[in-house]
Amino acid sequence: xxxxxxxxxxxxxxxxxxxxxxxxxxxxxxxxxxxxxxxxxxxxxxxxxxxxxx
Length: 54
What we know:
mainly alpha
């Protein structure tokens, strides 16, 4: 992720801080999803269990 932010910064000629602020909501969403997966693993296995059956 950091490498992509550096490349975007170089291409757009913007400071890395400004690029990071634009990406922050997406990073926050990733952290929230990771926390949900860790706390409730049944969320991840719901679709495979529905498809494969008991």
